[in-house]
Every structure is written in C-alpha cells, then in structure tokens.
Amino acid sequence: MAEELILDTTLTKAEKYRQLLPQIEALTTGEPDLTANLANTAAALRQAFGFFWVGFYLVKGEELVLGPFQGPIACTRIRHGKGVCGASWAQATTLLVPDVEQFPGHIACSSESKSEIVVPILKNGQVVAVLDVDSDQLNDFDSADQHALEQLMQLAATWF
Ligand code: SME
C-alpha cells in the first residue's frame, strides 16, 4: 500500500482524478473492511481537491446514517427522499447542485456549503450508500466530477 498520495497540483481537475483513482484502488485492494476503505477514500478526495466536506451516508432501514467523512461535523440521519442525499438515494442517480439554496429541501449541515454533488453507490441495483461532496464555492462541480466520482463509486460498490 502506498503511504503517500501522489498529487500533481499542475494538472486539470479531470487529470487529477485520473491520477487519484488508481491510487485509491491500490489503497483499498485486498482490504476487506468497509469502514477503512470509505474512510481512506474520503481522506484521499479531501486531500486531492481540498473539498469543504466529503463523506458517506450509509442506507440503514428507512434512513441514511452518517459514515466516514472528512470535514466539519454533519447531520447524522437523513430520511429517504429528504435533502440532496435523500433525493439521490430515492432517485438512484447522481445529483449536481450548483447552488444549494435553490434546491428544495436542501439540508444545511453548514451555512458555508454552497454547492454539492451526491453520487449513489449501487449494489445489485439497490442504493447502499451515497457519497456527498460539498464545496464552499458556488457552482464548483461539473461533469468531470460526476464522471470520475461515478467511476469511483463503482469501485466502492465492490466493498459492500
Ligand atoms: N446537504 C446534504 C446534507 C448532508 S451535509 O451537507 C454533509 C443534503 O441536503 O442532503
């Protein structure tokens, strides 16, 4: 296992993801513990991109429950369909929110969060968790984030 991430700051965002994803794969390959893999993934994403908040919510019954994350403390439970995370779970699809104040029912864990992307993790067609990434800048996520994070969440699905 690599002890340090290689992060070239001169790269474009898409290139950074291309550099990072194989490193996350190497870091998690052979490790059977879900918490360990989710925790290192959250840390690697925050370290590479400096996101305000990055973490996982796990499906437990009728709710999402806070899992491994990096950043300020956050809401612990989110009901099905509620907020961006609950909507992504209900729709089993990625949600890109350029301005969280314009998203009906957005759950404000922090007033500093301005834009957000939520990517579901699907196992056998069922959402088992979501990745939530928040930025303190408006309109901070685009199709490059969506493409790379969806690819990463396909890897994450193998940990469940
Ligand atoms: N904003 C999210 C809640 C989670 S926090 O941002 C960490 C939502 O609306 O689902």
Automatic annotation (TrEMBL):
Gene3D superfamilies: 3.30.450.40. It holds the Pfam family GAF. GO terms for molecular function: L-methionine-(R)-S-oxide reductase activity. GO terms for cellular component: cytosol. InterPro entries: GAF, GAF-like_dom_sf, Phosphatase_reg/MetRdx. Residues 33-158 form the GAF domain. Belongs to the free Met sulfoxide reductase family. This is GAF domain-containing protein.
